[in-house]
Design goal:
Structural class: mainly alpha
Distance between the termini: 69 Å
Strand content: under 5%
Shape: globular
Number of domains: 2
Bound molecules: heme C
CATH architecture of the largest domain: Orthogonal Bundle
Radius of gyration: 22 Å
CATH class of the largest domain: Mainly Alpha
Number of helices: 13
Helix content: 40-55%
């Protein structure tokens, strides 16, 4: 009798563990948390396609390591999320260095424009490449370039992030357009200190165009406070929807002593809508 009960207990425990592990795997994947790169929501075929297209870059760029130089161009390992002209040890053209001063960061948007027509995006730069004129090719290539990094690097946070955002978007039944509209209204609170437009002016705070996916403190010509720089040195790397959400909830709690004097937005829905809007600032 007792033996039977024990046996039943063992069976139930094993069953419980199997279900638990299964559920964890499923949701772990959904969130992109700790699952292997690439996150489940990135279409593999697109990455593969991008890899094929990247052969066009190989005569001039190494894509396997941040430190391996060809005789022509800088290595492209970890290029996504980096400020322009920031590979140590590579001699850039003056035009490319100026782009860095202008705050160009290699996010999806600027890569897309640069790869479409390098000479048009950064006049006078020395990349002798006519450009990829098909949007779909550039998109695939950029998806591939995103994979050129150590999987544990926080640069991939924006990707993980997309999964989280699409989850929360699914919970919210209102349309994307509605959320963007509400977010834009919410952003008027930021407009007192931040330029959100294409002019990229630094006023009281740094400009916010392209902030989602941008390195924190990456606006070179803006004088960030010491506490802010310390937070960056201690590992605040790229603004993604998660850390931006935390920061906007209570800036001083995330970066004690920051000179962004703002009480924070406590309402989850308003913050999320604002972030949906900020993501459109490209
Ligand atoms: C004919 C050689 C050549 C080819 C082909 C080429 N590039 Fe370049 N690329 C360069 C050079 C040279 C630079 C440096 C530009 C400068 O300093 O003005 C550069 C710069 C870049 C930069 C900016 C790097 C930085 O640190 O700011 C990116 C991004 C880039 N290339 C991507 C690509 C991609 C992606 C491809 C393939 C679709 C490609 N390039 C094809 C020569 C090339
Ligand atoms: C009262 C002025 C003020 C308001 C209002 C304000 N900010 Fe800021 N913000 C700043 C200042 C100043 C900094 C620089 C912080 C530092 O150096 O410590 C900053 C920094 C930031 C950064 C870091 C940018 C970077 O390049 O790393 C983000 C992101 C940001 N603010 C977002 C927002 C958002 C979103 C809102 C609206 C909800 C907002 N801020 C409202 C003044 C403000």
């Amino acid at each position: 009798m007792n033996g039977n009960k024990d046996f039943l207990a063992v069976i139930l425990t094993v069953f419980g563990v199997v279900v638990f592990v299964g559920v964890f795997h499923f949701f772990g994947d959904e969130l992109g948390v700790d699952s292997a790169y690439p996150p489940a929501n990135v279409m593999l075929s697109q990455v593969d396609q991008g890899k094929r297209i990247s052969r066009k870059c190989l005569p001039c760029h190494d894509l396997t390591s941040a430190r391996r130089f060809t005789r022509v161009g800088p290595p492209l390992w970890e290029i996504v999320g980096k400020p322009a002209a920031s590979v140590q040890g590579y001699v850039y053209s003056r035009a490319q260095l100026r782009a860095r001063q202008d705050g160009v960061v290699w996010d999806e948007f600027s890569l897309d424009r640069y790869l479409d027509n390098p000479r048009d995006f950064i006049p006078g730069n020395k990349m002798a490449f006519a450009g990829l004129h098909l949007g779909a090719e550039r998109k695939a290539l950029i998806e591939y370039l995103k994979t050129l990094q150590d999987p544990k690097e926080s640069r991939m946070a924006p990707l993980i992030d997309q999964a989280i955002l699409s989850l929360s978007a699914a919970e919210d039944s209102s349309s994307f357009v509605e959320r963007v509209k509400r977010g834009r209204i919410e952003s008027e609170k930021c407009g007192a200190c931040h330029d959100l437009g294409p002019e990229k002016k630094n006023i009281v705070g740094p400009y916010l165009m392209g902030v989602v996916g941008r390195p924190a403190g990456g606006v070179l010509e803006y004088p960030f406070s010491q506490p802010f720089k310390k937070a960056v040195a201690q590992g605040l790397k790229v603004w993604n929807t998660k850390n931006l959400d935390d920061f906007i909830t209570d800036p001083d709690a995330v970066i004690p002593g920051t000179k962004m004097i703002f009480p924070g937005i406590k309402d989850d829905q308003r913050r999320q809508d604002l972030i949906v809007y900020l993501r459109t600032l490209k």
